[in-house]
Every structure is written in C-alpha cells, then in structure tokens.
Amino acid sequence: MSFDPYVVREDFPIFKKIVNGRNLIYFDNAATTQKPRQVVEAIADYYFNYNSNVLRSINTLSAQATDLYINSRRKIASFIGAREEEVVFTKNTTEGLNSLAEALPRLIGRKLTVVTSIMEHHSNLLPWRRMVSEKGGRLIVVGMDSDFTVNMDELERRLEEGCDVLTIVHVSNVLGTMNPVKEICRLAHKHGSLFVIDAAQSIPHMPFNVQEVEPDFMVFSGHKMLGPTGIGVLYIRKSLIEKIEPWELGGGMVKTVTMESQTYEDIPFRFEAGTPNVEGVVGLAAAVDYLNNIGLKNIVEHEANLVKHLMEGLDEGFIKVHGPDESSKHKGIVSFSVKGIHPHDVAQMLDADGIMVRSGALCAEPLVNALGVNAVVRVSLYLYNTVEEVDRFLDSMKKLRMLT
Ligand code: PLP
C-alpha cells in the first residue's frame, strides 16, 4: 500500500490547531502520540452503545461488552504475534514493569540478581532497585558500547556470572538506538536467565513478533501508539504465565472464594483484578487496526526518511546530535544539545514557533548524564509528521543560530 502522511493527517483533527500563531507541529511522539478520529470514535461507540461491566453479569449488554473486550484482546495479541491468554492489560509500561518486580521474586523464590542497562528509562530501573533493596539480591547495570547500544561483551559476562532476570530496553527513548533483542534473548536463555523487553518505543514504530524474538516478558503502552492513555500491555510467555501468582487480588480474578481460601480465574483474567479499563482496550484495538491498515513497514520507512532529512539539515557547528552519526540508527528519535543554549530555552523558542519538542533528562537521567550533559532537546517523529514540518523545524534552528 502506498503511504501518504498528508492523507493520514486528515484523520487527526488536532493538526488543524494553531499554536502561537503557527500550524501545530508535534515532535513529541516518544512522550505520547496524537489520536486519530477512528480511535476516539471506537471509544465513543463503546460508551454510546455497549457500556457495561465485563466478564460478570449475564445480561445482554454485558455479554456484548464482554465480546468487545475479548475480541479486542485477540486483535492486540495478534499484533505482536502472541496468544490472547499471554496478554495482560495494565495501565502502561511503568505498571507492567512494577508488576514484574513484584511477581518475579515470588515466582523464583530466592534473592534475585537482576541485570539491566545504563540505557533504561527510570521505569525499568527504579522498580528493580527497590525490589532488591527490600527483598535482598543485586541489581547490576551494564554499560553502552561505542555504537550507543548495550555492551554485549559486558552483558554476556554478567549473564555468565549468574543472572535471574535480564531487563533491557528495545529502542532508547533518548537516542533512538535499537538493542539486538533477539540476540540478547538467546544469550539470556543460554545462561538460564529470564528476559524482559521494555518495548515502549518499538512496538508503535516497527513490526515485532514475540514468536520470533521469544522474550519471556514484554511491556508497552497504548498511548504511544495512537491509543488512549491508561492502557498498556504486559506480555507473559505461555509456559510462565500459568506459574505466576497474581500480584493484585480482588473481584473479577477469582472463581471461588471461601472464608479460608480462593481459586483463581483462568489466565489472563486472574491478572486483571477489579473492573478493567474497557474503553482503553477498545481504543487500543482501534489503534492496532489503524496501524495495521497503514502497515508498520511503511512507518519504519517514513520515519527513516524524516530522520535522515532532519540530521542532514542540522548545522554541525551549532548542534551536537547525541548517539550515532548514521541517521539510520536513530529510530524516529533525535536528541541534541545546542552550543551555549540550555535545552529548555531551545524548547521554548521552538514552542514559540508552534513546534512541540521535549527537553530535559527524559526520564532517563543516568543515560543523559552518561552522554556528558544533564539535559537534551528531543525530537521524536511518527507517521503523521512530514518533510515540510522538518523543514520548518530546521528554519527555526537557523533562526536561533542567527539570534545568538
Ligand atoms: N520505557 C520507555 C523506553 C519509555 O520511553 C517510556 C515512556 O516514555 C516508558 C518506559 C514509560 O512509559 P509509560 O509512561 O507509558 O508508563
């Protein structure tokens, strides 16, 4: 299918918005993405025509809402090549990782050695750090290679020394570099470790199949892939999900309860205590339909073209791009520093031109500090961004240079 971002943009009413006198340019997609009409309409349709609690009542409306909920899970699971019973709904990536830090000590039954990397978002560092500090065990942080991906020699050494859980980001939210998760997964399993992928920045942007990579766990957020906020996915491999003790207890996740004991619901329902976020699940399924319709390969190609155009247009004497020099290694994300100007000031100046970017430590302070700075400016792109928008951004950066 041919792909035209201008056609895509028609589905996003927000792009009609004027900000500070200019047409809105949204370059903050790694933080969250905009929502197409189809996603918002699917949510409205659910509320207007099917709203009911799910998996409980036997009335017709509840049966219809339950069908919608279950079919949506099937669609979302198939998007990543998973079975529906391997997909647990969470609030977001952060909740998925916190749940694992809660569940895995119980599963493994001893003090854990967890290995992670310097490239992680705080969500893939802090839950593990607290877990080992409260329950005992060790957290080991592996560094980066000169190509700004995880240092594979160091990683393998740590795995050889003994590791229970290896948890690594797929695409860095700061650098846009991509870790070789298939190879890492193979190494983890060779050395008897479980493997968690933080796929928050990859699932929205590229084809991914859990059957090909074979991670034990994977987490991502709906809001970074055109879906609503408040819905995310925790994928758990079938052979493990049967053995994991639910980390939250309450209604909807039990079959029978006496004053002494309970039996749990089937997987994955036993991991979704309380009334679930039905609108979020329905909205995420609509986002998956939308992305499938466009084709993930088209998105990969489009983002690569935009990043190339952007990096070629940046003035090297004035702007330092963090990470690899090759634009092909930045998966839709370019972070940079501007000579003599604080990142927040750069972001504010771009904002005055109607261009939304992110500045700061990007919830990955150890990584940003390892780059030798304490803040950066980040441009993060998606399917609805255009070459024309990148040109407007480059013009604003030229204007900034002339002002300094
Ligand atoms: N991991 C990565 C790599 C991210 O980029 C983010 C968000 O920016 C997260 C985790 C946390 O995602 P959320 O805030 O949706 O929980």
Helix share, percent: 25-40%
Per CATH, the class of the largest domain reads Alpha Beta
Tell how many strands the DSSP assignment holds. 17
Shape, principal axes of CA atoms? globular
CATH topology tier name of the largest domain: Aspartate Aminotransferase, domain 2
**Would you identify the regions where 5 or more consecutive residues have pLDDT less than 50?**
none
**Strand arrangement across the biggest beta sheet:** 4-10-9-8-7-5-6
The biggest sheet, with number of strands, parallel, antiparallel or mixed sense and barrel status, is: 7 strands, mixed
Bound molecules: pyridoxal-5'-phosphate
Radius of gyration: 22 Å
Compute the number of helices: 14
Q: How many separate domains?
A: 2
Task: Specify the structural class.
Answer: alpha/beta
- Compute the separation of the termini in Å: 45 Å
Secondary-structure map:
Layout (H helix, E strand, L loop, with lengths): L4 H5 L8 E2 L2 E2 L1 E2 L10 H13 L10 H20 L7 E4 L2 H16 L3 E6 L8 H10 L1 E6 L9 H10 L3 E5 L11 H10 L3 E5 L11 H4 L3 E5 L10 E5 L1 H4 L12 E4 L4 E3 L13 H17 L1 H18 L5 E3 L11 E6 L4 H10 L2 E2 L1 E3 L4 H6 L5 E5 L6 H17 L1
Parallel strand pairs: 3-15, 5-6, 5-7, 7-8, 8-9
Antiparallel strand pairs: 1-2, 4-10, 9-10, 11-12, 13-14, 14-17, 16-17
The structure holds pyridoxal-5'-phosphate (PLP).
The site of pyridoxal-5'-phosphate has 14 residues, from helix 4.
